[in-house]
Amino acid sequence: MKYRTISLFASYLLMTLAVIMTSSCSKEDDNAVDTKFVLSEYDMNRPVGFGANVTGGAGQNVIVVTTSEELIEAVSGTESATVYVSGAITLDSTIPVGSNKSIIGLPGATVSNLHRDENAGIFLLRGSDNVIIRNLTIKGPGAYDIDANYADNISVTGSTRIWVDHCDIQDGIDGNFDITDGSDQVCVSWTRFRYLIDPKAGGTGGNDNHRNSNLIGNSNKTADIDAGRLNCTFINCWWGEGCNERCPRVRFGKVHLVNCLYNGNDYTYCIGYGVYSNIYAEKCAFTTETARQNAIYDWHGTADFNLTVTSCLGVPDTQLSAGEQQQFVPQYDYISYDASQVESVLTNPTTGAGPTLEIVQP
Fold first, then answer.
1. From 192, 246, 249, 251, active-site residue
2. 56-346: which CATH architecture?
3. pTM of this prediction?
Protein backbone atom coordinates (compact mmCIF):
# COMPACT_ATOMS: atom_id res chain seq x y z
CA MET A 1 0.00 0.00 0.00
CA LYS A 2 1.27 3.42 -0.91
CA TYR A 3 0.68 6.32 1.48
CA ARG A 4 1.28 10.03 1.24
CA THR A 5 2.13 12.54 3.94
CA ILE A 6 0.27 15.81 3.63
CA SER A 7 1.61 19.00 5.18
CA LEU A 8 -1.02 21.71 5.33
CA PHE A 9 -1.26 25.38 6.15
CA ALA A 10 -3.45 26.01 9.18
CA SER A 11 -6.05 27.67 7.03
CA TYR A 12 -6.57 24.35 5.28
CA LEU A 13 -6.47 22.32 8.49
CA LEU A 14 -9.11 24.69 9.79
CA MET A 15 -11.23 23.82 6.79
CA THR A 16 -10.87 26.66 4.35
CA LEU A 17 -10.23 23.83 1.94
CA ALA A 18 -8.36 26.11 -0.40
CA VAL A 19 -5.45 23.89 -1.34
CA ILE A 20 -3.44 20.89 -0.12
CA MET A 21 0.17 21.85 0.58
CA THR A 22 2.78 19.17 -0.04
CA SER A 23 5.76 20.79 1.70
CA SER A 24 6.44 21.41 5.39
CA CYS A 25 4.79 24.42 6.98
CA SER A 26 7.09 27.39 7.41
CA LYS A 27 7.88 28.53 10.94
CA GLU A 28 7.97 32.08 9.57
CA ASP A 29 4.31 31.93 8.61
CA ASP A 30 2.22 33.11 11.58
CA ASN A 31 -0.77 31.24 10.15
CA ALA A 32 1.03 27.90 9.88
CA VAL A 33 0.76 24.86 12.13
CA ASP A 34 3.76 22.54 12.12
CA THR A 35 1.66 19.43 11.53
CA LYS A 36 1.95 16.34 9.40
CA PHE A 37 -0.46 13.45 9.29
CA VAL A 38 -0.59 10.39 7.09
CA LEU A 39 -3.45 9.82 4.68
CA SER A 40 -4.39 7.00 2.38
CA GLU A 41 -3.38 7.73 -1.18
CA TYR A 42 -7.10 7.71 -1.97
CA ASP A 43 -8.05 10.31 0.63
CA MET A 44 -8.73 13.64 -1.08
CA ASN A 45 -8.79 15.40 2.31
CA ARG A 46 -11.69 17.60 1.28
CA PRO A 47 -15.41 17.25 0.68
CA VAL A 48 -16.29 15.89 -2.74
CA GLY A 49 -19.38 15.26 -4.79
CA PHE A 50 -22.57 16.85 -3.58
CA GLY A 51 -20.84 18.44 -0.57
CA ALA A 52 -17.92 19.94 -2.47
CA ASN A 53 -18.78 23.54 -1.57
CA VAL A 54 -18.65 23.10 2.21
CA THR A 55 -16.14 25.39 3.97
CA GLY A 56 -17.38 25.26 7.58
CA GLY A 57 -15.76 27.68 9.99
CA ALA A 58 -13.03 28.56 7.47
CA GLY A 59 -10.45 28.94 10.21
CA GLN A 60 -12.31 31.75 11.93
CA ASN A 61 -12.78 32.17 15.70
CA VAL A 62 -10.70 29.17 16.70
CA ILE A 63 -11.52 27.65 20.09
CA VAL A 64 -10.64 24.43 21.92
CA VAL A 65 -13.45 23.00 24.06
CA THR A 66 -13.25 20.39 26.81
CA THR A 67 -16.75 20.50 28.37
CA SER A 68 -20.31 20.16 27.14
CA GLU A 69 -21.07 23.74 28.15
CA GLU A 70 -18.17 25.04 26.09
CA LEU A 71 -19.14 22.91 23.11
CA ILE A 72 -22.79 23.99 23.17
CA GLU A 73 -21.86 27.65 23.24
CA ALA A 74 -19.14 27.33 20.60
CA VAL A 75 -21.35 25.70 17.93
CA SER A 76 -24.38 27.95 18.36
CA GLY A 77 -25.42 30.79 16.07
CA THR A 78 -24.33 31.62 12.55
CA GLU A 79 -20.99 33.35 13.08
CA SER A 80 -18.08 31.39 11.60
CA ALA A 81 -16.26 29.27 14.18
CA THR A 82 -13.66 26.50 14.13
CA VAL A 83 -14.16 24.35 17.21
CA TYR A 84 -11.62 21.77 18.32
CA VAL A 85 -12.89 19.07 20.71
CA SER A 86 -10.37 17.78 23.26
CA GLY A 87 -10.90 14.75 25.47
CA ALA A 88 -14.19 13.04 26.31
CA ILE A 89 -17.36 15.14 26.47
CA THR A 90 -20.58 13.63 27.81
CA LEU A 91 -23.91 15.33 27.09
CA ASP A 92 -27.21 15.47 28.93
CA SER A 93 -29.20 16.51 25.86
CA THR A 94 -28.92 17.12 22.13
CA ILE A 95 -26.69 19.97 20.95
CA PRO A 96 -28.18 22.34 18.34
CA VAL A 97 -25.51 23.22 15.77
CA GLY A 98 -25.72 26.53 13.96
CA SER A 99 -24.22 27.50 10.61
CA ASN A 100 -20.68 28.10 9.36
CA LYS A 101 -19.08 25.76 11.88
CA SER A 102 -16.20 23.29 11.83
CA ILE A 103 -16.24 20.77 14.69
CA ILE A 104 -12.93 18.92 14.69
CA GLY A 105 -11.79 16.23 17.08
CA LEU A 106 -8.24 16.24 18.35
CA PRO A 107 -6.81 12.70 18.60
CA GLY A 108 -8.94 10.54 20.89
CA ALA A 109 -11.78 13.06 21.19
CA THR A 110 -15.26 11.67 21.89
CA VAL A 111 -18.72 13.16 22.25
CA SER A 112 -21.27 10.89 23.96
CA ASN A 113 -24.88 10.94 25.08
CA LEU A 114 -25.90 7.84 27.01
CA HIS A 115 -29.50 8.76 27.87
CA ARG A 116 -32.08 6.33 26.51
CA ASP A 117 -34.88 8.82 26.02
CA GLU A 118 -35.91 11.65 23.70
CA ASN A 119 -32.85 13.64 24.82
CA ALA A 120 -30.43 11.01 23.51
CA GLY A 121 -29.39 12.82 20.33
CA ILE A 122 -25.95 14.37 19.98
CA PHE A 123 -25.62 16.86 17.09
CA LEU A 124 -28.84 18.39 15.72
CA LEU A 125 -28.46 20.39 12.51
CA ARG A 126 -31.89 21.93 12.01
CA GLY A 127 -31.94 24.60 9.32
CA SER A 128 -28.14 24.76 9.46
CA ASP A 129 -25.86 25.60 6.56
CA ASN A 130 -22.17 24.99 5.91
CA VAL A 131 -21.10 22.63 8.72
CA ILE A 132 -18.11 20.29 9.03
CA ILE A 133 -17.85 17.49 11.61
CA ARG A 134 -14.50 15.76 11.47
CA ASN A 135 -12.26 13.28 13.30
CA LEU A 136 -14.65 12.52 16.17
CA THR A 137 -15.91 9.38 17.87
CA ILE A 138 -19.63 9.97 18.46
CA LYS A 139 -21.34 7.55 20.85
CA GLY A 140 -25.00 7.01 21.60
CA PRO A 141 -26.63 4.80 24.25
CA GLY A 142 -27.56 1.91 21.96
CA ALA A 143 -30.59 1.32 19.76
CA TYR A 144 -33.99 1.71 21.43
CA ASP A 145 -37.04 2.32 19.24
CA ILE A 146 -39.00 5.06 21.03
CA ASP A 147 -39.99 7.05 17.91
CA ALA A 148 -38.00 10.04 19.19
CA ASN A 149 -37.64 12.77 16.60
CA TYR A 150 -34.03 13.71 15.91
CA ALA A 151 -32.63 11.34 18.56
CA ASP A 152 -29.79 10.36 16.26
CA ASN A 153 -26.10 10.79 16.83
CA ILE A 154 -26.23 13.26 13.97
CA SER A 155 -29.59 14.57 12.73
CA VAL A 156 -29.47 16.70 9.59
CA THR A 157 -32.89 18.21 8.98
CA GLY A 158 -33.66 21.05 6.61
CA SER A 159 -29.93 21.74 6.33
CA THR A 160 -27.49 22.28 3.47
CA ARG A 161 -23.79 21.98 2.74
CA ILE A 162 -22.68 19.38 5.28
CA TRP A 163 -19.42 17.42 5.39
CA VAL A 164 -18.85 14.58 7.88
CA ASP A 165 -15.38 13.08 7.60
CA HIS A 166 -13.23 10.55 9.44
CA CYS A 167 -15.74 9.95 12.23
CA ASP A 168 -16.73 6.79 14.13
CA ILE A 169 -20.48 6.98 14.73
CA GLN A 170 -21.74 4.36 17.16
CA ASP A 171 -24.93 3.16 18.84
CA GLY A 172 -27.42 5.88 17.97
CA ILE A 173 -30.67 5.40 19.87
CA ASP A 174 -32.88 6.08 16.83
CA GLY A 175 -30.21 6.02 14.16
CA ASN A 176 -26.58 6.84 13.70
CA PHE A 177 -26.93 9.61 11.13
CA ASP A 178 -30.19 10.66 9.44
CA ILE A 179 -30.68 13.21 6.64
CA THR A 180 -34.24 14.47 6.25
CA ASP A 181 -36.66 17.33 5.57
CA GLY A 182 -35.20 18.70 2.36
CA SER A 183 -31.57 18.61 3.44
CA ASP A 184 -29.11 18.76 0.55
CA GLN A 185 -25.47 18.96 -0.58
CA VAL A 186 -24.06 16.38 1.83
CA CYS A 187 -20.74 14.54 1.70
CA VAL A 188 -19.85 11.74 4.13
CA SER A 189 -16.31 10.45 3.76
CA TRP A 190 -14.03 7.98 5.55
CA THR A 191 -16.63 7.46 8.28
CA ARG A 192 -17.39 4.28 10.20
CA PHE A 193 -20.87 3.26 11.36
CA ARG A 194 -21.43 0.48 13.89
CA TYR A 195 -23.34 -0.78 16.92
CA LEU A 196 -21.43 -2.14 19.88
CA ILE A 197 -24.25 -2.10 22.47
CA ASP A 198 -27.04 -4.67 22.32
CA PRO A 199 -30.36 -3.12 21.24
CA LYS A 200 -32.96 -2.56 23.93
CA ALA A 201 -36.38 -4.14 23.36
CA GLY A 202 -39.79 -2.84 24.36
CA GLY A 203 -39.70 0.66 22.89
CA THR A 204 -42.91 2.39 21.87
CA GLY A 205 -41.89 2.20 18.20
CA GLY A 206 -42.17 -1.58 18.29
CA ASN A 207 -38.84 -2.55 16.70
CA ASP A 208 -36.76 -4.52 19.18
CA ASN A 209 -33.68 -4.44 16.94
CA HIS A 210 -33.57 -0.82 15.80
CA ARG A 211 -29.91 -0.81 14.79
CA ASN A 212 -30.92 1.21 11.72
CA SER A 213 -27.96 3.33 10.77
CA ASN A 214 -28.73 5.94 8.12
CA LEU A 215 -32.10 7.15 6.89
CA ILE A 216 -32.24 9.55 3.95
CA GLY A 217 -35.77 10.93 3.66
CA ASN A 218 -38.24 10.05 6.41
CA SER A 219 -41.57 9.90 4.58
CA ASN A 220 -43.12 8.90 1.26
CA LYS A 221 -45.36 11.95 1.45
CA THR A 222 -42.85 14.79 1.50
CA ALA A 223 -42.26 15.42 -2.19
CA ASP A 224 -43.01 19.10 -1.63
CA ILE A 225 -39.82 19.51 0.41
CA ASP A 226 -37.68 16.53 -0.61
CA ALA A 227 -38.01 16.35 -4.41
CA GLY A 228 -34.78 17.51 -5.99
CA ARG A 229 -32.98 17.49 -2.64
CA LEU A 230 -31.49 14.88 -0.28
CA ASN A 231 -28.48 14.58 -2.60
CA CYS A 232 -25.60 12.84 -0.81
CA THR A 233 -22.18 11.38 -1.55
CA PHE A 234 -20.91 8.56 0.66
CA ILE A 235 -17.28 7.83 -0.19
CA ASN A 236 -15.00 5.40 1.68
CA CYS A 237 -17.59 4.73 4.39
CA TRP A 238 -17.80 1.54 6.46
CA TRP A 239 -21.02 -0.05 7.72
CA GLY A 240 -19.87 -2.92 9.91
CA GLU A 241 -20.41 -4.56 13.26
CA GLY A 242 -24.00 -4.57 14.51
CA CYS A 243 -25.56 -2.61 11.64
CA ASN A 244 -28.96 -4.12 10.91
CA GLU A 245 -30.32 -2.00 8.06
CA ARG A 246 -30.46 1.49 6.50
CA CYS A 247 -26.90 1.53 5.24
CA PRO A 248 -28.44 3.72 3.91
CA ARG A 249 -32.17 3.66 3.15
CA VAL A 250 -33.07 6.31 0.58
CA ARG A 251 -36.13 8.26 -0.50
CA PHE A 252 -36.16 11.00 -3.16
CA GLY A 253 -32.45 11.80 -3.20
CA LYS A 254 -29.62 11.13 -5.60
CA VAL A 255 -27.18 9.10 -3.51
CA HIS A 256 -23.73 8.04 -4.63
CA LEU A 257 -22.02 5.20 -2.74
CA VAL A 258 -18.42 4.64 -3.79
CA ASN A 259 -15.77 2.39 -2.24
CA CYS A 260 -17.93 1.62 0.80
CA LEU A 261 -17.51 -1.49 2.94
CA TYR A 262 -20.12 -3.91 4.27
CA ASN A 263 -18.44 -6.57 6.43
CA GLY A 264 -20.93 -7.13 9.25
CA ASN A 265 -23.02 -10.20 10.05
CA ASP A 266 -26.31 -8.65 11.20
CA TYR A 267 -27.82 -7.03 8.11
CA THR A 268 -31.49 -7.40 7.36
CA TYR A 269 -30.48 -5.37 4.32
CA CYS A 270 -27.68 -2.98 3.43
CA ILE A 271 -28.94 -0.52 0.79
CA GLY A 272 -32.67 0.16 0.76
CA TYR A 273 -34.29 1.95 -2.18
CA GLY A 274 -37.57 3.76 -1.67
CA VAL A 275 -39.82 6.22 -3.49
CA TYR A 276 -38.06 8.45 -6.03
CA SER A 277 -34.66 7.25 -4.84
CA ASN A 278 -31.86 7.43 -7.37
CA ILE A 279 -28.87 5.41 -6.16
CA TYR A 280 -25.54 4.75 -7.83
CA ALA A 281 -23.39 2.24 -5.91
CA GLU A 282 -19.98 1.55 -7.39
CA LYS A 283 -16.87 -0.35 -6.36
CA CYS A 284 -18.24 -1.20 -2.93
CA ALA A 285 -17.31 -4.40 -1.10
CA PHE A 286 -19.80 -6.85 0.42
CA THR A 287 -17.41 -9.25 2.12
CA THR A 288 -19.59 -11.40 4.39
CA GLU A 289 -22.26 -13.86 3.37
CA THR A 290 -24.89 -11.84 5.23
CA ALA A 291 -23.91 -8.71 3.33
CA ARG A 292 -23.92 -10.47 -0.01
CA GLN A 293 -27.32 -12.07 0.58
CA ASN A 294 -28.90 -8.82 1.79
CA ALA A 295 -27.13 -6.20 -0.27
CA ILE A 296 -30.21 -4.39 -1.61
CA TYR A 297 -33.85 -4.17 -0.61
CA ASP A 298 -36.97 -2.88 -2.33
CA TRP A 299 -39.27 -1.09 0.08
CA HIS A 300 -42.63 -2.73 -0.68
CA GLY A 301 -42.70 -2.61 -4.48
CA THR A 302 -41.29 0.87 -4.85
CA ALA A 303 -42.37 2.85 -7.90
CA ASP A 304 -40.39 5.67 -9.50
CA PHE A 305 -36.82 4.82 -8.59
CA ASN A 306 -33.45 4.01 -10.11
CA LEU A 307 -30.73 1.79 -8.69
CA THR A 308 -27.39 0.92 -10.25
CA VAL A 309 -24.91 -1.44 -8.59
CA THR A 310 -21.71 -1.66 -10.60
CA SER A 311 -18.21 -3.10 -10.20
CA CYS A 312 -18.85 -4.14 -6.59
CA LEU A 313 -17.24 -7.07 -4.79
CA GLY A 314 -19.53 -9.91 -3.75
CA VAL A 315 -22.67 -8.91 -5.68
CA PRO A 316 -23.49 -8.86 -9.39
CA ASP A 317 -23.92 -5.72 -11.44
CA THR A 318 -27.56 -4.70 -11.17
CA GLN A 319 -29.71 -2.03 -12.76
CA LEU A 320 -33.30 -1.62 -11.61
CA SER A 321 -35.75 1.16 -12.38
CA ALA A 322 -39.38 2.16 -12.47
CA GLY A 323 -41.05 5.37 -13.53
CA GLU A 324 -39.73 8.10 -15.78
CA GLN A 325 -36.77 9.68 -14.00
CA GLN A 326 -33.35 9.09 -15.52
CA GLN A 327 -30.64 7.13 -13.72
CA PHE A 328 -28.27 9.41 -11.84
CA VAL A 329 -24.63 8.91 -12.83
CA PRO A 330 -22.02 10.98 -10.95
CA GLN A 331 -20.43 13.71 -13.06
CA TYR A 332 -18.15 15.30 -10.46
CA ASP A 333 -14.48 14.64 -9.65
CA TYR A 334 -13.56 11.93 -7.13
CA ILE A 335 -10.99 9.19 -6.60
CA SER A 336 -12.10 5.56 -6.72
CA TYR A 337 -10.27 2.24 -6.76
CA ASP A 338 -11.06 -1.40 -7.34
CA ALA A 339 -13.56 -2.99 -4.97
CA SER A 340 -11.09 -5.75 -4.10
CA GLN A 341 -9.03 -3.16 -2.20
CA VAL A 342 -11.86 -1.62 -0.19
CA GLU A 343 -11.65 -3.76 2.94
CA SER A 344 -7.89 -3.40 3.33
CA VAL A 345 -8.02 0.36 2.68
CA LEU A 346 -10.88 1.17 5.04
CA THR A 347 -9.84 -1.10 7.91
CA ASN A 348 -6.28 0.23 8.00
CA PRO A 349 -5.90 1.52 11.59
CA THR A 350 -3.63 4.38 10.55
CA THR A 351 -5.15 5.69 7.34
CA GLY A 352 -8.57 4.06 7.06
CA ALA A 353 -12.12 5.02 7.99
CA GLY A 354 -12.74 6.51 11.41
CA PRO A 355 -10.97 9.24 13.42
CA THR A 356 -7.46 8.48 12.18
CA LEU A 357 -6.27 12.07 11.61
CA GLU A 358 -3.46 13.17 13.94
CA ILE A 359 -4.54 16.81 14.08
CA VAL A 360 -2.46 18.92 16.46
CA GLN A 361 -4.07 21.37 18.88
CA PRO A 362 -3.78 24.94 17.60
1. 246
2. 3 Solenoid (2.160)
3. 0.91
